[in-house]
Task: inverse folding
C-alpha cells in the first residue's frame, strides 16, 4: 500500500517536480539571489541516491563558481533551524571548496517522498549517468511512486522505447551489469546479450576482441542458431518468430506517431526486413499521406 507521503509526491506530478530541478529562467534566478543562506546552515540529503561525485568535474565547477559565483539556486527545505538540500548538492560541495560563505536558495515545502523523488529525477539528468544507473532510477520512480513508462517518457523528454530498452538491462545478470557500470560494455552491447541464456560465456570475447555492437549481435544470432540444433522444427520456428521487447516497443512508438497499426519483421541476416502499415479507411490513408507530405 502506498503511504500518504508517496501519494502526495505522485499527485503533485512529475512535471511540477521537474520544474524544481530544471534551471530557472534568468529573472527567476535574479529574484532568488536575494534569498541567501549561510553555507554552514545547509545540510545534504542523507537519502541522496547519488553516492559518487567525480573530483574532475567538481573541480571545473569550483573554478566556475570562483569566477562567476553560484548562478543557480539550490532547492532546499526547512529542517529545524537549518536547511536540507533537495536539489543541488554538487553546487553545495563545489561552493565549499570555493570557500563561498552564502548560497542562493529556493525554499520548498517538500515531504520525504517528494525529496527522494526530486533527488532521483536530478540524478537522471546527469550528463555522466551510466545506463545501468539510469535504468535503476527509472525503476525506482516506477516502483516507489507508481509512475508508468509513458509518464516518465513524457516528463523526461524521452521515447517510451528508450525507457523500455534501458529497463531491460536490469534483467541481465549482475556480473554483466557490472561491465556496463565500469564502462567495459555499452548499453548497445548489453542489449544484444539479453536474448541469450548465458551471456557470461561470450562477454569476455566481446571485450577482449573489441567487437562492435553489430558484431556482437551477429555473434549472438550465431549462438542462437547453434542452440536450435536438435530441436523440433516447430519450436525453432516459434522461437525465431517471437518478437523481442525492443521490436514491440518500436512498433508501439511508430503506431502512436502514425495513428496506424504497425508491424515490423526482420530477415534472417538481421540487417533488412519489412515495415507494414495497416489502415482501416481511406481517411486514415489520406492522413498518412499528409504526414509523409505525399
Result:
Amino acid at each position: 500500500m502506498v503511504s500518504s507521503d508517496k501519494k502526495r509526491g505522485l499527485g503533485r506530478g512529475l512535471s511540477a517536480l521537474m520544474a524544481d530541478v530544471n534551471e530557472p529562467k534568468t529573472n527567476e534566478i535574479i529574484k532568488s539571489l536575494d534569498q541567501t543562506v549561510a553555507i554552514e546552515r545547509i545540510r545534504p540529503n542523507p537519502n541522496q541516491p547519488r553516492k559518487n561525485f567525480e573530483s574532475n568535474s567538481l573541480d571545473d565547477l569550483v573554478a566556475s563558481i570562483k569566477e562567476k559565483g553560484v548562478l543557480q539556486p539550490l532547492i532546499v527545505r526547512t529542517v529545524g533551524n537549518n536547511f536540507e538540500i533537495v536539489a543541488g548538492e554538487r553546487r553545495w560541495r563545489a561552493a565549499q571548496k570555493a570557500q563561498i560563505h552564502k548560497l542562493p536558495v529556493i525554499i520548498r515545502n517538500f515531504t520525504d517522498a517528494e525529496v527522494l523523488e526530486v533527488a532521483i529525477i536530478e540524478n537522471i539528468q546527469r550528463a555522466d549517468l551510466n545506463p545501468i544507473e539510469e535504468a535503476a532510477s527509472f525503476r525506482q520512480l516506477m516502483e516507489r511512486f507508481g509512475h508508468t513508462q509513458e509518464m516518465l517518457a513524457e516528463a523526461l523528454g524521452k521515447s517510451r522505447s528508450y525507457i523500455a530498452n534501458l529497463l531491460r538491462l536490469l534483467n541481465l545478470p549482475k556480473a554483466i551489469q557490472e561491465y556496463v557500470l565500469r564502462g567495459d560494455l555499452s548499453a548497445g552491447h548489453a542489449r544484444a546479450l539479453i536474448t541469450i541464456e548465458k551471456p557470461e560465456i561470450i562477454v569476455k570475447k566481446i571485450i577482449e576482441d573489441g567487437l562492435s555492437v553489430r558484431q556482437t549481435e551477429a555473434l549472438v544470432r550465431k549462438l542462437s542458431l547453434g542452440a536450435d540444433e536438435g530441436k523440433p522444427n516447430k519450436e525453432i520456428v516459434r522461437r525465431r518468430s517471437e518478437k523481442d521487447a525492443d521490436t514491440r516497443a518500436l512498433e508501439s512508438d511508430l503506431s502512436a506517431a502514425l495513428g496506424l497499426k504497425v508491424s515490423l519483421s526482420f530477415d534472417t541476416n538481421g540487417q533488412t526486413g519489412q515495415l507494414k502499415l495497416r489502415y482501416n479507411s481511406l481517411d486514415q490513408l489520406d492522413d498518412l499521406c499528409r504526414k509523409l507530405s505525399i
